[in-house]
Structure prediction request, 562 residues.
Amino acid sequence: MKRVNCLYRVSSKQQLHGDDIPVQREECMAYLGEHTDWEFNREYVEKAVSGFKTSVKDRDILQEILTDAREKTFDVLLVFMSDRIGRKEDESPAFVTTLNDLGIEVWSVKEGQLKTAEHVDKLMNYIRFWQAEGESRKTSMRVKAAQETFVRDGKFVGGKAPFGYRLEYSGAISNHGRALKHLVIDKEKAKIVQQIYDYAYYYHYGALKIAKTLNEQNIQAPVDTWKACTISQILQNPVYMGYIAYNRRQHSKCGGSFERTPMEQWIMSDEQNTELVIVSREKWEKVQEIRESRKKNMKDARDDKQGKYVYTSSGQLVLMGLVYCGYCGKRLTNGSKYDYWETKEGERRKKFVGRYRCTQMANGSLTCSGKAYYRAEEIEPIVYTVVTSYLNSLKEADTYDDILKLQEEQRILVKHELEQLQKEIKAIKKDIETLEQNIPSALRGEGNFSPVQLSALMDKNKQQLIELEHRLEIKNKEYKEMECKKKDIKNIGNMISNWGELFMECSIPERKVMLSKLIERIDVKENDIKIKFKISLEEYIGEKDGRKGIGSPTTLYTPCSA
Prediction:
C-alpha cells in the first residue's frame, strides 16, 4: 500500500472561516478512496499563506514535506489542484521535480499525476504553474485596482489604525456584507504625534533622538518603549496631513519580507480629509525634506573622503556641519574644551570654550597648512553679520517675487516632461502585456506572430522600457531638486523681514536649523571666511540695473574686520 499525505492551503485569513479547507479535504479523501492501493497517512495544512507571494524556502509546510520525503515517511503527495503547491512558475515545478527525484509521486484531484520524467512532462508542469501564476497576477491587479480606487476616494482600505487614530464603525456595509470601519482621531495620542513632528520640524531631530527623548519623558509608546523604527513610520505616513496612502511598501523580490517603495510611487487620496489632519501639509512635507537631507548627509559622510561628520542639530556649536577647513577642504569637527580654575575662596569653576577643529591639522597631517582650531567666539559673530547683510541686501533688491515666478515656470516645464515620460512608460507596459497574452497562441502555432517574432518584439519593448525608466529617474531627481530649491527660496523669503530679532531669541538647535536653510557651506581660513549661500540670485536674475547680483555663491569676510 502507498502511504498518502495530503496538502491543503488557503491564501488569506478570510478563507480560514469559510469552507475552503473542508472542501479540499473532502475532495482529496474521495479521490484517495478511488485508489485501492492507497492509504491515508497524514495531512499538511497551510493557513493564510500565499502561493504567489511567498517563496518555497519561506513556506514551513513545504520544507516539512521535503524533510518527510527524504526520510521516506510517505509515497504520494495529494493536493486538490496543483496551485495548492504554489503559483510561482519557476519554484513550483522545481518543488515537484525534487519530490519525484526523491521517489515521491505527486497527484492532483483535478489534474491527475504531475510527472517530470519526460521533457514534455516538465513542459506541461511549467505551463500549468505559469498559468496559475498568471491568474494570481490578474487577481492581484484587480485587488490593487480596487484598493487604489478606494484610496483615491479617501477611503480606509483596512488594517491596523495608525498611531494617533482609532477605528470606529462607519455605518457602511461592504459588498460581502461586512460592517466597515473608518479612522477617527484619538485626541490624546494625536498630541504625541504633534510633539514628534515638532521635534523633527523645529529641532531637526532624527528618529533615534526623538525616541530617546520620548522615553526620557516617560511618554507611553504604542508597544513597550519608543523605537526609532516606530518614529520613522509616524514621520513618513501622509495620513497625518489628511491623505490616505497605498503602495507604501511591497513584497521584496528576494523573499516574503516587505520593502518600502519610493514616495513618487505611492497612491494617495485625491483630496485631503480634514477630519484626519493632525499636522499641516506644509509641516509634513518639510519634515520629509529634512529627513531626506539627513540621509544624504549620512551617505556623504560614508562616501566622501572629505570628512566623517554628519549634520545634527544637537550640541553647542551653531555652525557644526556647515563649516569646513579653507586649506584642506575637510569638514571641521567639534574641538571644544572646558577651562578650569579656582577662585580665591577655593571654589572650583569651569568655562565652556567652543572650538572647531580641523582633524587633519590636529593630527599632524602634512596635507593641511592651516590652523588646528578655530574659536567659535571669533567665527560665529562674523557669520551672523554676513547673513544679516545678505538678507538685508535681498530685501533692498526687491527681486524675491521675480525669482519665485521664474523658478515656478521652470518647475512646471520639468513636471510636464515627467508626465510625458510616465505616459510613454504606461503605453510600453501595455504593449508588453499584450504581447505576453499572445504567447500561448504563438506556442500553438496560431495568431499573427511566431514565437521568435514575439520574443524579438518583447525584447525590444523591454529595452525601451528600461531606457524610459532611466530617463524618468533622472527627471524625477531634477524635479525634486527644483522642489527643494523652491522651498529654499521661500525659507529665505520668510526670514528676510525679522531675521535679526528672531535669530538672537532662538535656542542653539533652532539657530542651527535657520542657518542650514540659508547656507550651503562655510570655508574658514586664518584670515578670511567664505560663505556659500544655498540660493544665488545670479542663478535666476544675473545682472540687474547694472549692479552686481545679490548673494553671489561666495562672500568674503576677514575675521579682523568684524
About this structure: The chain is about 45% helix and 15% strand. The chain has three domains: 2-135, 165-297, 305-400+505-561. Residues 432 and 458 are 6 Å apart (CA to CA). The chain has a mean pLDDT of 80.
